[in-house]
Specification:
It contains five helices and eight strands, in the order E-E-H-E-E-E-E-H-E-E-H-H-H. It is of the alpha+beta class. It is elongated.
Length: 165
């Protein structure tokens, strides 16, 4: 069973197994978040350890991608992952990143100005905008947050309230 690990602000940091969650709880690195479903109860000769669906790290921890905007810096690896290595121009396999507004014209390496591209499309577009090159983007750039779906699930536990079956 998967357990969500959050920081003190309830932002998702990771998904872990119940065994890893037990280690975080017994070493007092994390605490159970009351009001979330009980995943498992672990018994030992000296203690009983309940493990909830959400455990929170006791100290505040940085969460990558939190608070990012279209103007935020994005690495090439992040853009390729976000676009699932699919070219934004021809939908073929992508192996490079293209700046929609070229860097030579003041374009930045941000979520809103970069898309994954194959070498041939990137080379054809060169230092032009897609419109100038006669190319169309098949999907719009967006801010990539790999934890968005998990974060939604955690927030629903709190907003909808946990109801036992």
């Amino acid at each position: 069973m998967t357990v969500f690990v959050t920081n003190a602000g309830m932002q998702i940091l990771a998904r872990v197994t119940w065994r890893r969650a037990a280690i975080l709880l017994t070493t007092e690195v994390a605490r159970n978040v009351e009001g979330t479903p009980l995943v498992r109860v672990v018994h030992s000769p000296s203690t009983t350890l309940p493990i909830h669906k959400v455990v929170a790290i006791k100290r505040n921890a940085y969460r990558p991608f939190a608070g990012k905007s279209m103007d935020s810096y994005a690495s090439h690896a992040t853009i390729l992952r976000r676009d699932q290595w699919i070219c934004a121009y021809c939908e073929g396999p992508a192996d490079t990143v293209d700046h929609i507004v070229p860097v030579s014209r003041g374009g930045r390496s941000s979520f809103g100005n970069q898309v994954a591209a194959c070498k041939s499309c990137n080379g054809f577009k060169a230092a032009r905008t897609p419109r100038e090159a006669g190319m169309a983007l098949r999907h719009a750039p967006f801010v990539h947050d790999p934890w968005a779906q998990d974060q939604k699930e955690v927030w629903e536990l709190f907003t909808l309230g946990f109801r036992s079956a």
